[in-house]
Structure formats: C-alpha cells, structure tokens
C-alpha cells in the first residue's frame, strides 16, 4: 500500500486486536483523551456534505476555586473543490459553499473557535511561480470578500473564526502577505497575524509572492480564551512558538499546507512538542488532496517538470499542554475535528512541570543578543 493510498495511521492501528489497540493508543496519544459519540444531526450532515467528523475531549483536574473553562475548537481540512484552473469567482464560490457546510456542522457540534487551513480559499499555487492569476486571489484582510462572508457566519453561530488568506495591502504599495484574519463571535474583525517564517525549501516558492510578516506574536483575547496563530512553516521554529507563549496564549493554531514527501515524519512531533514546551494547547491543521495545475513547473532538482506539488496529507490534530493528543483526521478526505478543552489545564500543567519557572530567558536573551552580531564567536571550549 502506497503512502498516498493510506487513509490514516489510525486506520492501520484499528487492524489490531481491541486489547492491543487500547494499549498502543495509550502509549501513542497519552492519557485523558476520550472520543465523544456524534449526535444524529451531525452524522446526517457529515454524510450529506461528505465531511468526516470526529469529536474528542481532554480531561482536566477539578479545582476548588476556579470553575472549568471549557472551549470547543474546530479544525477543518479540505481539498480544493474545483480544478485549479477554474475561474477565481467560481473557485471562491465553491470554497464559500464548502466553508458554510463545515461551519454548519461545527455549530451543531458546539464549536466556539473554528480554524481553516492555510490559504484555504484558493489553490496552493505558489509552487508554479506564476503571478497570474494567483495574485488576484489576494484581498483586503479587514473588508475583503472572504472576511465579509465569514463575518455573517461568525455572528450567526456565535463563533470565533480564523481565516488564513492572501492579504492585499493597498495602503502599502499593494503588497501581498500570507495572513490569518481573526473574526470574533459577534461578527467583527478583531485583528490579523502575518506569517513570520517563509519557506525556502522544495516547491513552496512563497518568497516569490510575499515577505516574512511584521506583526510579531500577537495573542487575541476572545470570549473563549486567548488564542494565537502560528502559520504553517513557523511550526519548525521553536522560538516562534515561544513568542506566543510569552504573550499569554492558551491555544495556538497552526494552519498549514504541507506535503508528504517533505514534512510528514515531522508533522506529529512539532505541534505536540510545542504544546508540551509552552504549556498550552496546539491545533495543527493541514490541507488535504493533490492539486494539479495546467502548466508544468520544475523543482530545481534536475528532475522532469511536473504539474502537481505533491500530496497534502491532512492528519489534523490537537495536543493538550500535558502532551496528550487527539487522533488525527484522514490523510485523504475532507474532515472536521472538534476538540473540547479545559483551559485550566494550562496552569495545572505549569504547576506540575514548572517549565516556565525553570526556563532561563535571561540567559537565552544574552546568547541571542550576541549571536546576531557580525563578530559573534561561539562558546566552544577545546584543549589548547
């Protein structure tokens, strides 16, 4: 069976005996995570819209002074619904229809904060290095068509929505950014974050379209917790995750678009490790499917030209501050993962492990301050 045909790691584990499956699941996913049965109306909508749905719940300790701070997050991964060469309005309308279906299910599942995958409303076309028509997908973050469409749904469903798009900055020379827009549960624009780290590996070619972001590590205070967005490639940089922690994030979303041949062995590790190191929840969302383009492009590796970027392997998941995690969504299908979190667990884990108490920010800061100097000399001790 090829990797492209494999639906998920979980589908393989389920071929084990029930006893072995339960033992192995405890080792792989940790303790304190349980699956919640889907209500009939969600099952019907799942079949109607052809979207896999899973709901899982993290446990936490009951406290004497603080009431539980329960929040439900929704992670939506999906294929491009039309051929990549479809006209922009047709593609956008199809994406909006799909988004509306997923948000309807999320509402039925009690979701408070909903996050799309990276650049969700367009093909992930940067591999082509073509400017036309892909730059036409860029839109104003505050009032563009995608944001305006989602504002109405956010208000209707009382839901915070995180929408990763190409942003057109008309105030600064029509420059383009890779941006995640935050819409609050009243349907109002709350803010945006621009992608901090731009890949220079494989066929991503994103630096042809936009630069590294300039918004720092913002944390958005919502009615459902303090949230942040670490866009795609930023998950490879531990200090990027740390930046959101220092600003008080309780949940950090990682909307992504990454392919199997490059990053899949890292996928289940990085966001999970970030949750452990920073004592917050992480939500990793990846695009799914293989997108084929009209024109061939090369990869700069001596191999023949081709028309696809590779297989986006989905596998979206959520990790708790204690390192336990949900099962992953499918590698091949549209899916919505709903996870119930108790934000009190962030402090509970900090009290147990003391990572924040034992970290040495002063020492790291001194080293980093020196490391950026042109005359920096690494601290290497050797026998004279």
UniProtKB/TrEMBL annotation:
Record-annotated CN hydrolase domain positions: 71-343
Family annotation (PROSITE patterns): CN_HYDROLASE
Catalytic activity line of the entry: 3-(carbamoylamino)-2-methylpropanoate + H2O + 2 H(+) = (R)-3-amino-2-methylpropanoate + NH4(+) + CO2; 3-(carbamoylamino)propanoate + H2O + 2 H(+) = beta-alanine + NH4(+) + CO2
Keyword terms: Hydrolase
Pathway(s) the chain acts in: Amino-acid biosynthesis; beta-alanine biosynthesis
Pfam families in the record: CN_hydrolase
InterPro entries hit by this protein: Aliph_Amidase/BUP (IPR050345), C-N_Hydrolase (IPR003010), C-N_Hydrolase_sf (IPR036526)
Biological process, per Gene Ontology: beta-alanine biosynthetic process via 3-ureidopropionate
GO MF terms, alphabetically ordered: beta-ureidopropionase activity
Domain of life: Eukaryota
Signal sequence, start to end: none
Keyword Repeat: no
EC number: 3.5.1.6
Family: Belongs to the carbon-nitrogen hydrolase superfamily. BUP family.
Record protein name field: Beta-ureidopropionase
Organism: Diabrotica balteata (Banded cucumber beetle)
């Amino acid at each position: 069976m090829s990797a492209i045909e494999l639906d998920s790691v979980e589908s393989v584990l389920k071929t084990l005996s029930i006893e072995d499956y339960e033992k192995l699941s405890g080792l792989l996913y940790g303790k304190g995570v349980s699956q919640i049965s889907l209500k009939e109306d969600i099952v019907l909508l799942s079949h109607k819209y052809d979207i896999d749905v899973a709901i899982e719940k993290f446990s936490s300790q009951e406290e004497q002074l603080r009431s539980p701070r329960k929040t439900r997050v929704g992670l939506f991964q999906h294929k491009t619904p039309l051929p990549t060469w479809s006209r922009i309005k047709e593609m956008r309308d199809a994406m909006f229809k799909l988004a509306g279906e997923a948000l309807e299910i999320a509402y039925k599942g009690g979701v408070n904060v909903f996050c799309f995958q990276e650049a969700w409303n367009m093909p992930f076309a940067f591999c082509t290095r073509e400017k036309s028509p892909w730059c036409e997908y860029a839109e104003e973050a505050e009032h563009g068509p995608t944001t305006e469409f989602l504002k109405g749904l956010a208000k209707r469903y009382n839901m915070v929505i995180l929408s990763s798009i190409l942003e057109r900055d008309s105030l600064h020379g029509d420059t383009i950014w890779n941006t995640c827009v935050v819409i609050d549960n009243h349907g109002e624009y709350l803010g945006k974050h621009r992608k901090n780290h731009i890949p220079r590996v494989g066929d991503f070619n994103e630096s042809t379209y936009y630069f590294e972001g300039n918004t720092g590590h913002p944390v958005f205070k919502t009615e459902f917790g303090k949230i942040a967005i670490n866009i795609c490639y930023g998950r490879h940089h531990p200090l990027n995750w740390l930046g959101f922690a220092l600003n008080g994030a309780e949940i950090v979303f990682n909307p992504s678009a990454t392919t199997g041949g490059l990053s899949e062995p890292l996928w289940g590790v990085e966001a999970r490790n970030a949750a452990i190191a920073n004592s917050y929840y992480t939500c990793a969302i990846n695009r799914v499917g293989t997108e084929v383009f009209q024109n061939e492009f090369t990869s700069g590796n001596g191999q023949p030209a081709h028309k696809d970027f590779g297989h986006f392997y989905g596998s979206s998941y959520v990790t708790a501050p204690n390192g336990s995690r949900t099962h992953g969504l499918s590698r091949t299908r549209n899916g919505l993962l709903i996870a119930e979190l108790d934000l009190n667990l962030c402090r509970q884990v900090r009290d147990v492990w003391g990572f924040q108490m034992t970290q040495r920010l002063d020492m790291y800061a001194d080293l980093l301050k020196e490391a950026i100097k042109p005359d920096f000399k690494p601290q290497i001790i050797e026998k004279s």
